[in-house]
Q: What sequence folds into this?
Protein backbone atom coordinates (compact mmCIF):
# COMPACT_ATOMS: atom_id res chain seq x y z
CA UNK A 1 0.00 0.00 0.00
CA UNK A 2 1.16 3.46 -0.78
CA UNK A 3 -0.43 6.62 0.55
CA UNK A 4 0.28 10.16 -0.55
CA UNK A 5 -0.10 12.80 2.16
CA UNK A 6 -2.57 15.55 1.31
CA UNK A 7 -1.12 17.96 3.85
CA UNK A 8 0.83 18.46 7.06
CA UNK A 9 0.02 19.40 10.66
CA UNK A 10 1.60 22.54 12.11
CA UNK A 11 1.47 23.23 15.86
CA UNK A 12 3.79 23.81 18.82
CA UNK A 13 4.04 20.15 19.89
CA UNK A 14 7.38 18.57 18.95
CA UNK A 15 7.58 15.65 21.41
CA UNK A 16 5.08 12.79 21.85
CA UNK A 17 2.70 12.96 24.80
CA UNK A 18 -0.27 10.88 25.91
CA UNK A 19 -2.41 13.64 27.43
CA UNK A 20 -2.91 17.39 27.29
CA UNK A 21 -4.05 17.68 23.68
CA UNK A 22 -7.49 19.18 24.31
CA UNK A 23 -6.39 22.84 24.04
CA UNK A 24 -3.71 22.41 21.36
CA UNK A 25 -4.53 24.41 18.24
CA UNK A 26 -3.22 23.02 15.00
CA UNK A 27 -3.22 24.25 11.45
CA UNK A 28 -3.57 21.61 8.78
CA UNK A 29 -1.82 22.89 5.66
CA UNK A 30 -3.26 21.01 2.72
CA UNK A 31 -1.61 20.89 -0.67
CA UNK A 32 -2.79 23.85 -2.76
CA UNK A 33 -4.30 21.42 -5.26
CA UNK A 34 -6.63 20.15 -2.49
CA UNK A 35 -8.30 23.54 -1.94
CA UNK A 36 -11.28 22.75 -4.24
CA UNK A 37 -11.94 19.62 -2.15
CA UNK A 38 -12.64 21.86 0.87
CA UNK A 39 -15.66 23.55 -0.71
CA UNK A 40 -18.48 23.45 1.84
CA UNK A 41 -16.41 22.19 4.76
CA UNK A 42 -16.96 25.37 6.83
CA UNK A 43 -20.52 24.26 7.60
CA UNK A 44 -19.32 21.33 9.70
CA UNK A 45 -18.52 21.80 13.37
CA UNK A 46 -16.18 18.77 13.52
CA UNK A 47 -13.85 16.88 11.21
CA UNK A 48 -12.34 13.41 11.24
CA UNK A 49 -8.62 13.71 10.53
CA UNK A 50 -6.65 10.65 9.41
CA UNK A 51 -2.89 10.99 9.76
CA UNK A 52 0.34 9.02 9.69
CA UNK A 53 2.04 8.77 13.09
CA UNK A 54 5.46 8.98 11.50
CA UNK A 55 7.46 9.23 14.73
CA UNK A 56 6.28 6.08 16.50
CA UNK A 57 9.41 3.88 16.52
CA UNK A 58 9.02 0.45 14.94
CA UNK A 59 10.24 -1.21 18.14
CA UNK A 60 7.28 0.37 19.98
CA UNK A 61 4.81 -1.62 17.87
CA UNK A 62 3.03 -3.88 17.99
CA UNK A 63 2.35 -4.25 21.68
CA UNK A 64 -0.43 -6.78 21.91
CA UNK A 65 -1.25 -6.50 25.62
CA UNK A 66 -0.95 -3.62 28.04
CA UNK A 67 -1.38 -3.36 31.82
CA UNK A 68 -4.63 -1.87 33.03
CA UNK A 69 -4.18 1.35 34.99
CA UNK A 70 -5.38 0.89 38.56
CA UNK A 71 -5.83 -2.86 38.22
CA UNK A 72 -3.55 -5.45 39.87
CA UNK A 73 -1.83 -7.54 37.22
CA UNK A 74 -4.72 -7.04 34.81
CA UNK A 75 -4.01 -6.71 31.11
CA UNK A 76 -5.95 -5.45 28.16
CA UNK A 77 -5.44 -6.08 24.46
CA UNK A 78 -4.01 -3.38 22.24
CA UNK A 79 -7.20 -3.11 20.19
CA UNK A 80 -9.15 -2.27 23.35
CA UNK A 81 -7.00 0.85 23.82
CA UNK A 82 -6.26 4.14 22.10
CA UNK A 83 -2.47 4.07 22.64
CA UNK A 84 -0.42 5.35 19.69
CA UNK A 85 1.77 2.21 19.39
CA UNK A 86 -0.33 0.46 16.73
CA UNK A 87 0.54 -2.30 14.24
CA UNK A 88 0.09 0.37 11.55
CA UNK A 89 0.96 3.97 12.39
CA UNK A 90 -2.44 5.39 11.48
CA UNK A 91 -3.99 8.06 13.68
CA UNK A 92 -7.64 9.12 13.62
CA UNK A 93 -9.07 12.05 15.54
CA UNK A 94 -12.39 13.87 15.70
CA UNK A 95 -11.69 17.57 16.17
CA UNK A 96 -13.64 20.82 16.10
CA UNK A 97 -13.07 22.95 13.01
CA UNK A 98 -12.29 26.47 14.18
CA UNK A 99 -11.80 28.13 10.80
CA UNK A 100 -10.67 27.71 7.22
CA UNK A 101 -8.46 30.05 5.24
CA UNK A 102 -7.92 28.88 1.66
CA UNK A 103 -6.26 25.44 2.00
CA UNK A 104 -5.50 25.76 5.73
CA UNK A 105 -7.80 24.33 8.40
CA UNK A 106 -7.46 25.38 12.04
CA UNK A 107 -8.59 22.70 14.50
CA UNK A 108 -8.33 22.09 18.24
CA UNK A 109 -7.35 18.91 20.08
CA UNK A 110 -5.63 17.08 17.22
CA UNK A 111 -3.19 14.67 18.86
CA UNK A 112 -0.58 14.90 16.11
CA UNK A 113 2.92 16.32 16.34
CA UNK A 114 4.16 19.27 14.33
CA UNK A 115 5.05 18.02 10.84
CA UNK A 116 2.74 14.99 10.92
CA UNK A 117 1.54 13.97 7.44
CA UNK A 118 -2.24 14.16 6.93
CA UNK A 119 -3.76 11.37 4.83
CA UNK A 120 -7.46 12.29 4.71
CA UNK A 121 -10.12 14.59 6.14
CA UNK A 122 -13.78 13.70 6.44
CA UNK A 123 -16.73 15.61 7.86
CA UNK A 124 -18.13 14.35 11.15
CA UNK A 125 -21.70 13.22 10.44
CA UNK A 126 -23.86 12.64 13.50
CA UNK A 127 -26.07 10.13 11.68
CA UNK A 128 -23.03 7.88 11.09
CA UNK A 129 -20.37 8.85 13.60
CA UNK A 130 -22.33 9.24 16.86
CA UNK A 131 -23.67 5.90 18.02
CA UNK A 132 -26.66 6.15 20.40
CA UNK A 133 -26.46 3.65 23.24
CA UNK A 134 -22.78 2.83 22.72
CA UNK A 135 -21.37 1.07 25.79
CA UNK A 136 -18.00 0.82 27.48
CA UNK A 137 -16.69 -1.84 29.86
CA UNK A 138 -16.40 -0.80 33.53
CA UNK A 139 -12.58 -0.56 33.39
CA UNK A 140 -12.81 1.88 30.47
CA UNK A 141 -15.37 4.03 32.29
CA UNK A 142 -13.05 4.23 35.29
CA UNK A 143 -10.09 5.11 33.07
CA UNK A 144 -12.00 8.04 31.55
CA UNK A 145 -12.48 9.74 34.91
CA UNK A 146 -9.06 8.96 36.43
CA UNK A 147 -6.35 11.62 36.03
A:
Amino acid sequence: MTYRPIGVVRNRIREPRLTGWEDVRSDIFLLDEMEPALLGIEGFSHLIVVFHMDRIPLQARPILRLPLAGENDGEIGLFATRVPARPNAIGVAVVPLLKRRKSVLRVRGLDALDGTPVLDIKPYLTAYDAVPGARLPDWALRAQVEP
